[in-house]
Amino acid sequence: MSQRTFSIIKPDAVKKGHAGAILAEIEKAGFKIVSIKKVSISKAQAEGFYHVHAARPFFGELTEFMSSGPIFPMVLEKDNAIADLRKLMGATNPAQAEEGTIRKKFAASIGENAIHGSDAEETAAFEIGYFFAGYELK
C-alpha cells in the first residue's frame, strides 16, 4: 500500500550543490515526489519543527544549522516509504552509513548529514503538516 513520508534536503547539501543529485537518488529508488519547495526557515521555525528534541544537548546547534540556509522540504510517496527512505538515507553518522546511501555519498558529519526523513507515520503526518498546506499535496 502506498505511504507518504517527509524529507528535507538540509542546508549543508544545498550549499554544496548536492540537491539535484539527492533528488535523483530519491527518484531512482522509486519515490514519487508529491510536493517540494525551496525555503529558508527562521531559528524559531526550526525550534517548532524539532520541538521533540528541545531537551537534548544538540537542540541549539541543530536549530541554528537548519536555519542557516535554504532547505528543500518534500513529501514523498511509495510503498513502504518511511522505512525505504530511512534505508536510502543511511545512518545518521555518515562514517557508519552503508555504501551507496545518501549520507555516505553527501554528508560530512553527524551534524551536517545532508538529509532528514520521518521515522514513523505519526512523525510524517506532523512534519508534512508543518511545511505543506493541504492544497500543496494533490
How would the blueprint of this fold be written?
Elements: E1 2-9, H1 11-15, H2 19-28, E2 32-36, H3 43-49, H4 59-66, E3 72-79, H5 81-89, H6 102-106, E4 115-117, H7 121-131
Helix pairs in contact: 3-4
Q: Which short descriptors sum up this protein?
A:
17% strand; four-stranded antiparallel beta sheet; 7 helices; 138 residues; alpha+beta; globular; Alpha-Beta Plaits
What does this protein look like?
By secondary structure, the protein is of the alpha+beta class. Helices cover 40% and strands 17% of the residues. The protein has seven helices and four strands, in the order βααβααβααβα. Helix 3 packs across helix 4 (59-66). The longest helix has 11 residues, at 121-131. It is globular and about 35 Å long.
Brief summary of the model shown:
This protein has 138 residues and is of the alpha+beta class.
- Our count of helices gives 7
The CATH homologous superfamily: Nucleoside diphosphate kinase-like domain
Strand fraction equals: 15-25%
CATH topology (level 3) name? Alpha-Beta Plaits
Helix vs. strand class: alpha+beta
Average of pLDDT: 97
Shape: globular
Q: How many domains make up the coordinates?
A: 1
Count of DSSP strands: 4
As a whole number of angstroms, the C-alpha radius of gyration is 14 Å
How helix-rich are the residues, as a percent range?
25-40%
Provide the spatial order of strands within the biggest beta sheet: 2-3-1-4
Please name the CATH architecture.
2-Layer Sandwich
Distance between the termini: 18 Å
Which CATH class applies here?
A: Alpha Beta
